[in-house]
Predict the 3D structure of the following.
Amino acid sequence: MEKLLNLTLKVWRQDGPKAKGAFETYKLNGISPDSSFLEMMDILNDQLINEHKDPIAFDHDCREGICGTCSMYINGHPHGPDSGITTCQLHMRSFKDGETITVEPWRSAAFPIIKDLMVDRSAFDKIIQAGGYISVNTGGIPDGNAIPISKWHADEAMDAASCIGCGACVATCKNGSAMLFVAAKVSQLSLLPQGKIEASQRAKKMLSKMDELGFGNCTNTGACEAECPKNISITHIARLNREFIGAKFID
Amino acid sequence: MWLIHSSVGRKVIMSVTGIFLVLFLTFHSVMNVIVLFSAEAYNSVASALGANWYAVIGTGVLALGFVLHILYALYLSWLNLKARGKDRYAVTKRQEGVSWSSKNMLVLGIIVFGFLVLHLFHFWAKMQLVELQYGHGWEAAGFQNPQDGAYFINASFSNPIFSIIYIVWLVALWFHLTHGVWSSLHSIGVNNKTWINRVKCISNVYSTIIILLFIAIPVYFLLGFRVL
Ligand code: HEM
Ligand code: SF4
Ligand code: FES
């Protein structure tokens, strides 16, 4: 068996949205390197409950990298130091015995903290509600290949569609911008024939909503792409810019 | 107005003014190196750009470009600071593939601006401004011939401290441009997966060429050569 890990955890604790938060330090011993980061957090919470302390609140659901809820800023990276994965997919073997691990919530004005490591990401839902859909009646289930779609378009749309709305892009962006998320959500629809019809309307509506909700202006640092668990490319942002600017010129 | 009220619109202004300034720099750098080959040729360009209407209007448009670029830079940075929120991360790490310049454009811009003011005092105030104020009466007013650009270059850069200050300035500008050139294209939507690395590479090469052309002059002087 591999050597078990003894760790020190510095975790952000905050009672509520208005409360003042602070770091608490916890010692946690005997963690298997094969366990996932969230399992480690569960063990820590068990320990806290046994000590009659308030367990740490954090979001999680699928624990397999598809729901996007597990938002933790670990040692200076959203979803931890490994790339291309979510927090729930992170294994403890990425850490060394005796290491101090700092866990923080997403920090961005548009994502207020609910409690501890939980943040309110309903701003993303509002952006989707503003235009992230297709409003035509597409009828019954069409024949598989009735609408020809090129391999390139299919791949590009699929890549964009892999965005799980986790918000790591916003969390890591020095400008608190949600452009990577919005660009992915606009691209996944506008690249396909069903979504193309409303493409320019959608770009305008979703982008205005993003601006209205207080997200920042993208300055193309590319930090979002580097931290995105789904490796969404910032070239989708260029497409969104193109679509938006084009739509404004037509107006 | 979408150019003020939408984030992409604001970026369009940053990008267009940025590209405009880059084009100006391209012209300026090419014009400058001429002095290393022939002071006379340089002065004929300098006198063509004296106080005639075209040059004055050109200067006005250029100044407007700078003002817009700077105002938008400040506005954007302030909005972004607000969007970031008051709470900072206790631990932050660099991401791989993210350039340092891209995160420090405002600081770099402010450095560039500081030296720009110095630069205007040293050259523009003694050249176009004098011509505008005194026309052909510069001699009576006790000034050096405002069209003798080579003289001013020679006088200023003969001081090694001045040359070193210019080199520092140009290095800051180089950092600003390596991110700026590709970013400005990306902002107006000119980019895709095939081109992103090429565009970044073009950006680096282009910035380097411009800055090398500029830096040639202070280096030439530091090496002990003079243009007059
Ligand atoms: C010769 C002078 C300058 C040139 C050629 C230049 C060029 C550029 C270019 C091409 C961009 C990229 C625009 C984009 O991403 O869309 C840019 C961005 C920027 N510039 Fe400048 N700039 C100059 C001076 C300044 C000055 C004086 C300041 C500020 C005081 C400044 C502040 C900024 C900032 C903050 C950005 C980033 C904003 C953003 O990406 O949206 N620049 N610049
Ligand atoms: S673009 Fe990436 S980082 Fe941003 S919400 Fe989607 S999956 Fe998360
Ligand atoms: S818990 Fe669903 S992605 Fe991590």
